[in-house]
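Our example copied in:
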Amino acid sequence: MTKSEFIKKINNGRDILFDINGHQYGIFTWCENGIGVGESTQNVSKDPLQYYNTPKDLLENYKVNGTPLADLCDKVIITDYT
């Protein structure tokens, strides 16, 4: 998936669950604080969600093992999308 495709998914989705290298993450676009993102286990957040104002901001600033999510778009496997 490209960065622009992922941005479009975030803009049009509500809950997005995805895997990267065997780890599960969730993006939740309906949160009061902005777009929430975080790693999860069995659909339960492992850490507090981090919040961003835009999908682009999220992709550029949320890091997975020190790498911005924007640089990992080609490794993203969406497992649930609403």
